[in-house]
């Protein structure tokens, strides 16, 4: 009997920046079954060392007092970049130039022009790119897509509505990087709106809308950073979609999808209420009951369990793609993630332009 091949070594991550979201992704890297952390960099060595210690990094992981040092570390295969969006272009491009595969926090760029520079450098350097939109990696997401793809139970998609909002209080609205024009100028649109827009595109099989119109109820802080907004999206085949995103409203993470024959709703699409199970509700071919005193059949609750959190599944998928590239060369690069990042960014840009033009319709061109 032939001897089994030895397991592939784990993908070795470096982390650039010690943002709060990096705590969650660091945990995910350590929980994943094909990756590990070998380095973390901050603007101060003390902060990087404290971050490594407080988040259970391996003792062998190196702490650096600069981002450059992480990129120069020859043992780093891939980097996770959770920096403010205004810094993404510089550090993502530098990472790709130094042949580090790139897991980039969302929003991935301030505009599609910046993202195109990042993606071009990833392609020319032969490195794998993925954005860190975690919910897409939960097994629930695949099960929901299977329902949407069922012509008998769901049929043609007609309408989508998505909400992602949270209210973190006055300190957040005064001090968080996401409300600072020099750090994350896209505000709520870039942070929570990214998820809503990705959900809409996911439901529409990544077909771009024909036009995007921001709703006039958008709110801004004194520095001009968006704190809440909404938009309507019109597609070429008549589908419509709307979304609302906010830093000013109660925590809500909804997608509602209406088809010819069915309906799907999920109440926690961004972060499941429970880490090990995700629920969604689906109904198909629903009618009024006799005398219109109810409906039948009743919606069904689907529970999708996972032993591995969605963010660890994201890291595992990314690491598997990195491993393929390392073993077989750049022809193995998976371009799907770059394509859907760019489409999401295009719609983000269109909403921003619509707000700037007095909430007028804006055409979306790939």
Q: What's a quick, concise take on this entry?
A:
The chain has about 375 residues and is of the alpha/beta class. It has two domains: about 10-135 and about 310-335, Rossmann fold (3-Layer(aba) Sandwich), CATH 3.40.50.720; about 135-310 and about 345-365, Dihydrodipicolinate Reductase, domain 2, CATH 3.30.360.
* Count of structural domains: 2
Quote the distance from N terminus to C terminus: 53 Å
What summary fits the major beta sheet? 10 strands, mixed
Order of H and E elements: EHEHEHEHEHEHEHHEEEEEEEEEEHHE
What is the multimeric organization of the chains shown? Answer: single chain
Q: What's the β-strand tally?
A: 18
Tally of helical runs: 10
CATH topology of the largest domain: Dihydrodipicolinate Reductase, domain 2
Portion of residues within helices:
25-40%
Q: Which value, in Å, is the CA radius of gyration?
A: 21 Å
Model regions low in confidence, pLDDT < 50 over at least 5 residues: none
Superfamily (CATH H level) name of the largest domain:
Dihydrodipicolinate Reductase, domain 2
Whole-number mean pLDDT: 96
Shape: globular
Main structural class: alpha/beta
CATH hierarchy: architecture of the largest domain: 2-Layer Sandwich
Amount of beta strand: 25-35%
What is the level 1 CATH name of the largest domain? Alpha Beta
Pfam families: GFO_IDH_MocA (PF01408), GFO_IDH_MocA_C3 (PF22725)
Family: Belongs to the Gfo/Idh/MocA family.
InterPro entries: Gfo/Idh/MocA-like_OxRdtase_N (IPR000683), GFO_IDH_MocA-like_dom (IPR055170), NAD(P)-bd_dom_sf (IPR036291)
Domain GFO/IDH/MocA-like oxidoreductase: 150-264
């Amino acid at each position: 009997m032939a001897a089994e091949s030895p397991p592939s070594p784990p993908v070795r991550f470096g982390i650039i920046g010690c943002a709060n979201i990096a705590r969650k992704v660091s945990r995910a890297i350590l929980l994943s079954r094909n990756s590990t952390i070998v380095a973390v960099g901050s603007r101060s060595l003390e902060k990087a060392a404290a971050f490594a210690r407080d988040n259970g990094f391996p003792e062998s992981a190196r702490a650096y007092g600069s981002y450059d040092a992480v990129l120069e570390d020859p043992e780093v295969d891939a980097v996770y970049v959770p920096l403010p969006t205004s810094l993404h272009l510089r550090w993502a491009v530098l990472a790709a130039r130094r042949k580090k595969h790139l897991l980039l926090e969302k929003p991935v760029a301030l505009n599609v022009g910046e993202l195109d520079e990042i993606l071009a450098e990833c392609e020319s350097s032969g490195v794998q790119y993925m954005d860190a939109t975690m919910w897409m990696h939960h097994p629930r997401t695949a099960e929901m897509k299977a329902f949407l793809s069922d012509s008998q139970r769901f049929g043609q998609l007609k309408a989508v509505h998505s909400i992602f909002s949270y209210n973190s209080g006055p300190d957040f609205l005064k001090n968080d990087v996401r409300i600072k024009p020099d750090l994350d100028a896209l505000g709520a649109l870039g942070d929570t709106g990214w998820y809503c827009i990705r959900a809409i595109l996911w439901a529409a099989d990544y077909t771009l809308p024909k036009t995007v119109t921001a709703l006039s109820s958008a709110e801004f802080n004194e520095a001009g950073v968006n704190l809440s907004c909404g938009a309507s999206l019109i597609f070429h085949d008549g589908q419509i979609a709307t979304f609302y995103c906010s830093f000013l409203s109660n925590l809500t993470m909804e997608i509602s999808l209406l088809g010819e024959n069915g309906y799907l709703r999920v109440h926690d699409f961004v972060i499941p209420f429970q880490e090990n199970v995700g629920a969604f509700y689906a109904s198909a071919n629903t009618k009024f009951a006799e005398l219109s005193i109810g409906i039948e059949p009743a919606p069904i609750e689907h529970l999708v369990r996972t032993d591995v959190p969605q963010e660890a599944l994201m890291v595992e998928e990314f690491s598997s793609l990195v491993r393929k590239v390392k073993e077989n060369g750049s022809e193995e690069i998976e371009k799907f993630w770059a394509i859907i990042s760019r489409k999401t960014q295009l719609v983000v840009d269109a909403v921003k332009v619509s707000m700037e033009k007095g909430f007028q319709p804006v055409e979306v061109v790939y």
